Structure prediction request, 831 residues.
Amino acid sequence: MRKIAIAGWLLFATVTPASAHKLIEPGPVIGIAKGSFSATATSTWNRLQQKEGKFQEIWTIDGDHLNRVIFLGGVPDGEPLLTERDKKRDPLPKFAAQMLLPDIPVLFERTYRSYYGTPVVEVGAMEPVTFAGEQGIRFEYGYTDTQDEVERRGEAFAVVRNKQLFMIAFEAPKLYYFERDVGSFHALARSVKLAR
Amino acid sequence: MRKALALAAGLLALAQPCLAEEGYSLPAYTAAYEPRTVDERGLWMDADDYEKLWAGSPTRINDKELNDYVRRVLCQTVGRDRCASVRIYILDIPAFNASMTANGAMSVWSGLLLRVRSEAELGAVLGHEFAHFELRHSLKGFQNRRTTSDVMAWIEVLGSIAQRDVRDAQLSLIGSAYRFDRQQEKDADLLGLRYLGASSYPSRAASEVWQHLMEEADATAAGRKIRRQQRYQAGFFDTHPTELSRADYLLAEAMKIGDTGDAGAKSHYAAIAGQLPRFLASQTKLNDFAGTEYILSGIAATTGWTGELLQARADMFATRANPRDLITATTLYLNAIDAGYRRPETLRGLGLSLIKSGQREEGARYLSEYLEAVPGAPDAKLISFYLPQPTGNPK
Amino acid sequence: MDKVCRVFALFLFACCATAASAQEKTGIKQGFELKPGTARILLLEPSVRVGAQSTGGLFEPNADWTAQSKQNIERELVAIQGRLGNAIDRHELDATDSSADLRRYHALFGAVADSVIEYQFFPGNRLPSKKKDKRLFEWSVGPGLRALPALDGYDYILVIRTKDAFGSTGRKLLQFAAAMGGIGVQSGEHVGMAGLIDVRSGDLVWLNADLKMGGDVRTAEGANKRVRQLLEGFPGRGAE
Prediction:
């Protein structure tokens, strides 16, 4: 955790007054999450400079406290979804290539419980869907972030391809923001393609 | 070590001369204490806030049987006079903790109920908390700490006991409401032991609680390949006697009391049976394979490997998913069914394990049964995807 | 990177930047003004959190510090209530159902204010989509607010949140900052925000936010300083 923090400061120290976050204007976008995805934005987004793991990319409209889209691109067998804070004392569950779609929400829930230290992550409805042209899963979830005590709702799409996990999720406070912005997320999710 | 003996000697000096199996007799208890000083009133106001938070918490378990059981154990430990005005709140948090406020509200976490192995062990912990209350420790502690600049958060102490970071902001605040210093913890241990001595429970149980916690911590550490340090002397940042010295002096005191009795192991598990699957499910989600295995074995020592325990064990292997774990998980699910435990989660777990092992037809049959049992399950559509489709085979 | 760590790192950056623009601390919705004596304002019980910062960067609450600080801040708010230019009523947040909704809005306001601080107040960290018009201050907790029965008859709610984290991590930050060029940085984090929200629309019409709040809120003098800073420039405040 400290390593990430220090890297963050260095980044801030060396960055020019121009913003380190990138504007995503409506239109096609390529090279998302280290080249794992392409998509078509139907509204304006911002790609955040920071992330919680090497497979992750975060987009937001007003700031990630209020609405955030998370891309997870190509998590391989044996890797956790996010960077572990302490590999030994606080390990995260790892993705296994043999996992079936019903295992994905469980993996996600246990990751969040550990990573955000929240005792309750509720996974709700889930169903098989076509995502990025493949047979995947859609599931809903909710949790309370213990750092800011805001109840959040989430919706995720995931697929396993070539023994790797690909996922896109949208999270926002249950109050007002989730319903206001989930439509933009759906439009984005419908357009997502896996890079060949 | 010398300090412990000195304390023990002091305690013996206070006790009644007769150390027969009846144990100590306790001083008369004056209930209905009202706060007098500004500090005390401040503390009682805070206590009211905490009690409201517990009362309104979404994690609160309202099950009447469970609440009655915990109350019965408390009363059997500290006596009817003392337990009469205590309000008990059981919270569904998978870590070992109980605490008591200055105005007589007590919280007990589900992780505690899962880890104690008998009524006596539960009584030992509840008695310890009640001892802080009877000794009015919170007041002394509050006055002391206002001038101390170096204070360690309760959360770290709790984490080191439960080998788990419990980071929920509001709830950790509840857990940390009354941190006590080292001496206060020891005093509460010793008074708690006196309650046990005067009760029908064997006072040895107090030492056993700590022994098991240490073993669980060892198991977790071994599972994560970390070396566990059993410090005998409390470190600079500890406000509790470390587990090792605690187990030691508690056992020494218990031997002096020399009481025996039925600890009530079977009756404890009978009392929590209704909530056990829920407690186990929360525990397995903590991603602590070795620690959970240890807990399961501990329960099995009394109850044998019941269906619930086999289910939990199977789930652990199924989610860890190391190369040989799939076979183990499948076997354990089948064992659970053999033991008469055929719940939806068993069918689901077995079905998915079989499919992952390449036995699609077998797996589909169990998943079919799962869907019949719970047609409205949140994952019903997803699971039905793995049944043979009329139009073609599933992926 | 943990959200709280990030916010503090931003502050470090702001300290180091030699840009001419001052660190923004107040935001006002375009066109908003409040004349003294014209509105009824409900002050929600403030959120006061005080604790230590763990080595992992997470906030570890300390019950005693929090209890003490809350007492101090409440006392200061009572003292200052009559000097804010409009009628202010105070609302307790207890554990009842109606309070649960208010608590949720309280927390959401915190998240909105965090966003304003992180992504609007700092020129170097502004979201590119918000850069186009610097006068725009469009932040909201949504129109659902007006449905709460407790807010009947009120025009605005005043929400106050403070969070103070003391700890060794702060000292490490201090070392790092010092290494970067001799800048004096207060150890730990002391974040505070005071916001005025229009009940009818849920819009944030005024926000005072500071990442480097003065005063040790565990002491009476510190709380006095903190509350004064938070309500500096409160709209509708007549001459004193």
